Amino acid sequence: MFLDILISFLLQLALTVGVIFLFGFLIACCNRAFYRNFGRRARKVCYVTGFFGTPVHELSHALMCVLFAHRIVEIKLFQVSDSDGTLGYVSHTYNKRNVYQVIGNFFIGVAPIVVITALLYLVAYLLLPAMTADFFAHIGQIDLSEGLTSVMGCLFSAIGVFFSYAVQWQWWVFLLIGMLLSLHMTLSGADIKGALGGLALVAVLLLIADIVMGVVSMPALNAFTQVCLAAAGYLLSFFTIALIFALLAVLISLPFRRLR
Question: How far apart are CA 57 and CA 186, in angstroms?
Answer without folding.
Answer: 9
